């Protein structure tokens, strides 16, 4: 008796499985249904408690208990249907997702709060006038915005070359105890309190101009002390990611080391270096304590970094909130508007960093 084998393409297709539970897999919408059911159960429990005690409904407790019930439910049903490995995967996924949502709640709440209260004084007068001779409503933060841009820009002009060249030395040239000492000092400076940087800048300029001297350049130096270690650390890590094969290929063609760094290493790492620099600027632009000590605050415009006190947006927010006058709502509105302006400046810097990283990154395609 001869058996004829049927080719695979001529065999009848297997009937699709109608019930995914019998295939060892939860339905596609099962996690969402479990999440909704968990929240409904938690809402029911807290609703009964609120009705019995005559208190308000606890939304926070409902979300927390609902999340816990969901994690337990997704792990239990997945273990029954899909097995222990898939259940563990779903359990860890639920924990990671919950941690992400938990981290986003204060960020979103902060953004909504600042935008809600800051729009009350987000007008033309706020950006075109200072607080000179203003004791109640009106006025603006132009002097603080100019001071922030001048001091932060000066700090960036000082910090970026020093930090970048230090990182190049540590990665490309540094060997022995000198490099180890520099690395140790950078690590120490990374954790230095910001008020210590302000005291250092104040003491440094008090030596030359006398005690009580507060200027914009002193505030810029204080920010520089805080910014340099961040630039060094971020640039060093980016330079380490450049493959050694690129350097060796340049050396094989007879290219000097300094030219290899300028033409090969830095262009390859420019995207990460730019991002690190913008993170360093965002790190120092919101500092209050060092600027309050080194630069002070004023209600008038000051474009000269080397003469007179200079205000900044963080210090402006602090003074408006701490020294409320009549009516207090006007001072609080100005503080919220200045905080919103500071957030928008940081957002703009990050967007610029992304654009620079995108356009100046090396093209890998042929």
UniProtKB/TrEMBL annotation:
<dbReference type="GO" id="GO:0005315">
    <property type="term" value="F:phosphate transmembrane transporter activity"/>
</dbReference>
<feature type="transmembrane region" description="Helical">
    <location>
        <begin position="264"/>
        <end position="285"/>
    </location>
</feature>
<dbReference type="InterPro" id="IPR035906">
    <property type="entry name" value="MetI-like_sf"/>
</dbReference>
<keyword id="KW-1133">Transmembrane helix</keyword>
<dbReference type="InterPro" id="IPR000515">
    <property type="entry name" value="MetI-like"/>
</dbReference>
<keyword id="KW-0472">Membrane</keyword>
<dbReference type="GO" id="GO:0005886">
    <property type="term" value="C:plasma membrane"/>
</dbReference>
<feature type="transmembrane region" description="Helical">
    <location>
        <begin position="215"/>
        <end position="232"/>
    </location>
</feature>
<feature type="transmembrane region" description="Helical">
    <location>
        <begin position="32"/>
        <end position="51"/>
    </location>
</feature>
<feature type="transmembrane region" description="Helical">
    <location>
        <begin position="182"/>
        <end position="209"/>
    </location>
</feature>
<feature type="transmembrane region" description="Helical">
    <location>
        <begin position="335"/>
        <end position="357"/>
    </location>
</feature>
<feature type="domain" description="ABC transmembrane type-1">
    <location>
        <begin position="145"/>
        <end position="353"/>
    </location>
</feature>
<comment type="function">
    <text>Part of the binding-protein-dependent transport system for phosphate; probably responsible for the translocation of the substrate across the membrane.</text>
</comment>
<dbReference type="InterPro" id="IPR005672">
    <property type="entry name" value="Phosphate_PstA"/>
</dbReference>
<comment type="similarity">
    <text>Belongs to the binding-protein-dependent transport system permease family. CysTW subfamily.</text>
</comment>
<keyword id="KW-0813">Transport</keyword>
<dbReference type="InterPro" id="IPR051408">
    <property type="entry name" value="Phosphate_transprt_permease"/>
</dbReference>
<feature type="transmembrane region" description="Helical">
    <location>
        <begin position="57"/>
        <end position="78"/>
    </location>
</feature>
<protein>
    <recommendedName>
        <fullName>Phosphate transport system permease protein PstA</fullName>
    </recommendedName>
</protein>
<feature type="transmembrane region" description="Helical">
    <location>
        <begin position="90"/>
        <end position="120"/>
    </location>
</feature>
<keyword id="KW-1003">Cell membrane</keyword>
<keyword id="KW-0592">Phosphate transport</keyword>
<dbReference type="Pfam" id="PF00528">
    <property type="entry name" value="BPD_transp_1"/>
</dbReference>
<dbReference type="GO" id="GO:0035435">
    <property type="term" value="P:phosphate ion transmembrane transport"/>
</dbReference>
<keyword id="KW-0812">Transmembrane</keyword>
<feature type="transmembrane region" description="Helical">
    <location>
        <begin position="140"/>
        <end position="170"/>
    </location>
</feature>
């Amino acid at each position: 008796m001869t058996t004829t084998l049927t080719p695979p393409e001529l065999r009848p297709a297997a009937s699709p499985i109608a019930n995914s539970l019998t295939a060892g897999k939860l339905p596609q919408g099962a996690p969402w249904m479990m999440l909704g059911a968990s929240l409904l159960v938690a809402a029911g429990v807290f609703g009964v408690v609120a009705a019995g005690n005559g208190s308000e409904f606890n939304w926070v407790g409902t979300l927390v208990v609902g999340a816990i019930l969901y994690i337990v439910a997704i792990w239990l049903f997945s273990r029954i249907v899909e097995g222990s490995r898939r259940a563990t995967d779903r359990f860890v996924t639920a924990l990671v997702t919950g941690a992400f949502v938990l981290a986003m709640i204060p960020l979103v709440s902060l953004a909504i709060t600042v935008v809600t209260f800051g729009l009350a004084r987000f007008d033309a007068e706020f950006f075109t006038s200072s607080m000179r001779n203003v004791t109640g409503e009106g006025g603006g933060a132009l002097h603080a915005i100019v001071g922030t841009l001048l001091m932060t820009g000066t700090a960036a002009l000082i910090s970026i070359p020093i930090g970048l060249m230090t990182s190049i030395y540590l990665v490309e040239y540094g060997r022995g105890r000198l490099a180890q000492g520099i690395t140790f000092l950078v690590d120490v400076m990374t954790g230095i309190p910001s008020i210590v940087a302000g005291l250092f800048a104040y003491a440094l300029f008090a030596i030359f101009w006398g005690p009580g001297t507060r200027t914009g350049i002193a505030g810029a130096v204080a920010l520089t002390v805080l910014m340099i270690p961040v630039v060094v650390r971020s640039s060093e890590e980016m330079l380490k990611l450049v493959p050694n094969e690129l350097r060796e290929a340049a050396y094989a063609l007879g290219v000097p080391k300094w030219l290899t760094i300028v033409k090969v290493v830095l262009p390859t790492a420019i995207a990460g270096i730019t991002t690190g620099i913008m993170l360093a600027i965002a790190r120092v632009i919101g500092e209050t304590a060092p600027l309050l000590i080194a630069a002070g605050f004023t209600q008038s415009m000051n474009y000269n970094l080397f003469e007179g006190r200079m205000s900044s947006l963080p210090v402006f927010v602090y003074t408006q909130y701490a020294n409320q006058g009549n009516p207090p709502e006007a001072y609080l509105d100005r503080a919220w508007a200045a905080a919103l302006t500071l957030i928008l400046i940081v957002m703009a810097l990050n967007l610029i960093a992304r654009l620079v990283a995108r356009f100046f990154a090396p093209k890998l395609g042929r």
